[in-house]
Automatic annotation (TrEMBL):
CDD domains the record matches: ABC_Iron-Siderophores_B12_Hemin
InterPro entries according to UniProt: AAA+_ATPase, ABC_transporter-like_ATP-bd, ABC_transporter-like_CS, P-loop_NTPase
GO molecular function, one term: ATP binding
Cross-referenced Gene3D superfamilies: P-loop containing nucleotide triphosphate hydrolases
Protein keywords: ATP-binding, Nucleotide-binding, Transport
Ranges of residues in domain ABC transporter: 3-235
Any Pfam family matching the protein: ABC_tran
Protein's name according to its UniProt entry: ABC transporter domain-containing protein
Family listed: Belongs to the ABC transporter superfamily.
Coiled-coil annotated spans: none
PROSITE patterns registered for this protein in UniProt: ABC_TRANSPORTER_1, ABC_TRANSPORTER_2
Superkingdom, taxonomy of origin: Bacteria
Length: 253
């Protein structure tokens, strides 16, 4: 076990956004969180990266209660690429990625050659090596997304949480990012909208509907035509791709 939610609930004004969700990330797996708009994916992820404190249940990082750990300890183990942006940053790309090193440093400890090397390799991993001195504010949405991924990599954690990481990315960078996550072999939980991409890259999927887990398992177990009709209200034909994954063809409404 690495990161796990057990019976996690969160409600606003009596309405459950997350309703007794239990899931467990196995070491080294790429777990995809799917579900329609408003099903609670981001809310659940927020309880797992310490933004939304669960009102019920517990989140564990290994054996510890994640919410009882000092923030710095949690950040040494768990990195996030979130949907929420802290406004626009007036920093260079390299400065943003260097922020990923903060949990590993004492207050005001200067950056080292090793930190700079990690920043360079993290930027290279996401295809942004030539952009280190650019102002973050001037980047496109997809470039920003890749820089935030580089910051998460620079954090050097063994657990990654990604909220719609392929948002803003063109098809090439969607494939690169999913391939990178797979190649790194970190324990990763990602909220994903593209069910074909999820089926192609994820080891397992968890599907949410109205804050509840309605299915969990291998992509072909979770993504059945019947369930997609029930949960998304969409008809789909499911076949096999040449590479052996399931492929979904959605039918017009
Ligand atoms: N702070 C809040 N107060 C009230 N309702 C909220 C709050 N945060 C989220 N919600 C509601 O909770 C539900 C779940 O939202 P959430 O963003 O977690 O879903 P999601 O599955 O990530 O959706 P999407 O796919 O559209 O990003 C939505 O109906 C949303 O409007």
């Amino acid at each position: 076990m690495t990161l796990a939610a057990q019976d996690v609930s969160y409600a606003v004004e009596g309405r459950a956004l997350i309703d007794r969700v239990t899931l467990e990330l196995r070491p080294g797996e790429f777990l995809g969180l799917v579900g329609p708009n408003g099903s609670g994916k981001s809310s659940l992820l927020r309880t797992l990266y310490r933004v939304l404190k669960p009102q019920g249940g517990v989140v564990r990082l290994d054996r510890s209660d994640l919410w009882a750990l000092p923030a710095r300890h949690a950040a040494q183990r768990l990195a996030v690429v979130a949907q929420e942006r802290m406004g626009e940053f007036d920093f260079t790309v390299a400065e943003i990625v260097m922020m990923g090193r903060t949990p590993h440093k004492r207050d005001f400890e200067p950056e080292t050659d090793e930190d700079r090397r990690i920043v360079r390799t993290s930027l290279a991993e996401v295809g942004m090596a030539g952009m280190a001195e650019r102002a973050f504010m001037t980047l496109s949405g997809g470039e920003k997304q890749r820089v935030l991924m580089a910051r998460a990599l620079a954090q050097g954690t063994d657990v990654l949480i990604l909220d719609e990481p392929t948002n803003h990315l063109d098809i090439r960078y969607q494939l690169e990012l999913m391939g990178l996550v797979k190649r790194l072999g970190l324990t990763t939980l990602a909220a994903l909208h593209d069910l074909n991409l999820a089926a192609q890259y994820c080891d397992r999927l968890v599907m949410l509907e109205a804050g509840k887990v309605v299915a969990a398992g291998a992509p072909q177990e979770v993504l059945t035509a019947e369930r997609i009709r029930e949960v998304y209200g969409v008809d789909v034909r499911i076949g096999r791709t040449a590479s052996g994954h399931i492929g979904l063809e959605f039918l017009p409404l």
